[in-house]
Amino acid sequence: MRLTPEEDQMLAGKFGRATQKAMEILVALGTIYGAERMLPVASVQVSGVSYDNLGEAGLEFLDEMAENGGRARVLTTLNPAGMDVENWPALGIDAEFARNQERILAAYAKMGVVTTCSCTPYLFGNLPRFGEHVAWAESSAVCFANAVLGARTNREGGPSALAAALTGRTPDYGLHRDQNRRPTLTVQVQTQPQGTRDFGALGVALGRAIEARQSKDIPYLRGIRRASLEELKSFCASLATYGGLALFHMEGVTPESGLHAPPDETLTLSRADLDSAIEALNAAAGEADFVSLGCPHLSLAEIQRLAERLAGRRVRKTFWITTSRPVKRLADQMGYTAVIEASGAVFAVDTCCVVAPIQGRFKTLVTDSAKACYYAAAKNGFATRFLPFDEVIEEALR
Ligand code: F3S
Predict the structure, then answer these.
(1) pTM (2 decimals)?
(2) What are the structural domains, with CATH classification, of the chain?
(3) pLDDT tens per residue across span 2-44
(4) Which residue, 5, 266, 274, 282, has most beta carbons within 10 Å?
């Protein structure tokens, strides 16, 4: 790889051991993927935050980087942690886990990382512009950054994202390059999805179809007339989970769609395909005991809607509302939090029903998120019910 003089100095240790180690990680990655140079990044989103995923080895790595002078050179935010630092006892998190989670956040803070923890950093200021290079890690956020914002990122792992933060660089390969962003498959959608659950179901159907092709397709979706921010974040989470995709184009909706012609090869998805994706995730029989909205983390508009529907009512099940700290602060300011908490629902801020350590605590999750359904079953062994946003709320009240 050709490095700039400053990058060479980082590699030689002139900026300290942590920066050197970070540059070593990036050079190794770039060499593996045939990158010829580094790119400056505008921002970073780091995964590997929950103690549930990181464990002691991960915590030691972070401590070492922080102790060795690692400091973020660009705006860097974190993926959800294993608990809400302000509200963990109410969520049933044990004290030892909380202590370890706080050690992780302290190590990130020492490195100058913004320690609000969210998969929707674009809702509170980590918002790259069209064409900007970034290094993000969480799969739904990566897909949103590439497809919806038109920014450019590979799906980073925890160490490579941290390395990008400490150097302000990422190797130039994969989705940073024009030729790897072209669509390869047209997807004709014969129905207009409505709401977050429908868009999640579209992600399931498309993700599974692409997995079955055993290809690395970049789909070009046609036929969808409109999609809100909330519907797109749901679609991104689902497509990344069920198909491993980090980029799509949606005609008339996403910014790069106008740069490309639809590929000749075409896949068709119908209302029946969405319905069968819904049915497969909606199989739980019997009483649900856990309800959650906020995968990906809720927007302020979603919290407003939730407050309107919960006003003056009482929930009868454990109901987690997951969002980022900055969005929660806005909800506080607008009075939505007070209304929601008066209903008995609880905010689980900067965490979520997937990364929190809740295995064995519940039997059946009700949610509007296809991604949450996937991990509820795969990680926690819960049965799932996959309902539209408003029906999820009604289920909590039942
Ligand atoms: Fe975000 Fe957790 Fe879902 S990280 S996308 S809320 S699984």
Answers:
(1) 0.97
(2) 5-178 (3.30.499.10), 182-280 (no CATH), 282-397 (3.30.499.10)
(3) 999 999 999 999 999 999 999 999 999 999 999 999 999 999 9
(4) 274
